[in-house]
Amino acid sequence: MRINRAAPDLFEIILRHLKEAVVFADDRGRIQIFNPVAVKFFKVKEKQALGKRFERVIPYKIIRKQFDSVYEHREGHHDIELAIHVPAVSEEEARLLRCGFYPVFDRNEIFIGCLATFADITEKGLLSREISQSKDLSTIGMLARWMAHEIRNPLSSLNINIELLRDELREEIHLAQKEEIESLLNFISYETLRLENNLKEFLDFNRLPPLKFEWVQLNEVLDSIVRLLRPDAQMKNARMEVHFQKKLSLVKVDVSQINLGISNLLINSVQAVSERGEIHLFTRASKKNVFIIIQDNGEGISKEHLPKIFDFMFSTKPMGSGLGLSIAKKIISDHHGDITVRSEMNKGTTFRIRLPLSPKMN
Ligand SMILES: Nc1ncnc2c1ncn2[C@@H]1O[C@H](COP(=O)(O)OP(=O)(O)OP(=O)(O)O)[C@@H](O)[C@H]1O
Ligand SMILES: [Mg+2]
Predict the structure, then answer these.
(1) Phi and psi, residue 67, nearest 5°
(2) Which of 52, 103, 124, 358 is most exposed, with minimal Cβ within 10 Å?
(3) Ligand 1 pocket test: which of 126, 263, 309 has the largest number of ligand atoms within 8 Å of its C-beta?
(4) How many CB atoms lie within 10 A of CB 357?
(5) Is the distance from the beta carbon of residue 337 to the nearest atom of ligand 1 less than 6 Å?
(6) Which of 122, 118, 123, 93 is nearest to 35 (CA)?
(7) Atom 25, ligand 1: which residue's CA is nearest?
(8) Which residue's C-alpha comes closest to atom 17 of ligand 1?
(9) Which CATH architecture has domain 10-124?
């Protein structure tokens, strides 16, 4: 690392110990800092990197493009997720990097180069990233409410049955352990009552925020989802492409919920495709509706499973919870829209969503 000699060793020590890769290229694009993690990510020795132009050192086009953009526009970008394929011992290994690219200016505001940082977030997993990124935590809020509902319904039938049992017991005059059974029953009904009250409180105070409708340009909303999920497709060497209808009319939706619903569909597509898979996202409009079509050429869904895929907790995946599609369906029906699916085994799956331009229109 060639750092100003006057600067203490501290800089060097910090750079050596950072868990992130740090690369700095000067105003002419020549690399001046290339820390050990960068050596690991880009499989280039520090000595070979220093002094060379970044294009010759960084083996990934998607990263070079980000450097180019800083040199061209002198503007930074951060929190960009990029998938790279690192040559490993056997095949290549896909890693997901969260990157930042920053123009650096000296005291006189003269541009002196581009600083880039890269953190490996491969292990963080899609869902945890999705949840941490959905700022209003609507996934968790929705799940929690859902669970509360799911517990509440059997609970009320449990209560009724306890009362029936109590009545039966009253009539059993000669039963030996009558008192003991009665006290056990009291205990059960006390506990169910407690649970019911807690749930009621939870449902009253922890309401999912009511749908916040606003007029939005749907293409832009979808574009931001795709930007977030595209790296996951790239990790599998799959493509995610958008085909938006130009001049799409504005729609009145709850952006964060639509975000959640569409993300769930796209995540399923990413999971369904294999090497060289393709995922296409279309928008179309009619007078009263917009249509979102998500098409993949993944493994498809069998005829037997197809009628069940929207069911709560139906999943064919070893680690799946079976919530994605039921959440998506609920969100779309809250918007007075609908969702349909066509699928063929080993050919692919197409989901079609209809959303009225404004929920009051239908
Ligand atoms: N694009 C798709 N291609 C193939 N199968 C799909 C696709 N989308 C959904 N499925 C099937 O529908 C099932 C239910 O999907 P859903 O998103 O509700 O749950 P999951 O993906 O299994 O789990 P979770 O989304 O909660 O992580 C999946 O397990 C899978 O069998
Ligand atoms: Mg899913």
Answers:
(1) -60, -50
(2) 124
(3) 309
(4) 21
(5) no
(6) 118
(7) 324
(8) 324
(9) 2-Layer Sandwich (3.30)
> In the chain, what are the helix, strand and coil shares in percent, each to the nearest 5?
45, 25, 30
CATH code: domain 214-361 is 3.30.565.10
**Structure token digits, residue 316:** 């064919």
For residue 295, what is the DSSP state?
Answer: E
Going by alpha carbons, the residue nearest to atom 7 of ligand 1 is 268
* Residue 266 CB less than 6 A away from ligand 1: no
CA-CA-CA-CA torsion sign (71, 73, 78, 80): negative
Provide the CA 149 distance to its chain's centre, in angstroms. 25
307 lines ligand 1 (CB under 6 A): no
- Going by alpha carbons, the residue nearest to atom 19 of ligand 1 is 322
Q: Quick one: fold of 138-205?
A: Helix Hairpins (1.10.287)
Please write the tens of the pLDDT for every residue from 79-111.
888 888 877 766 667 788 889 999 999 999 999
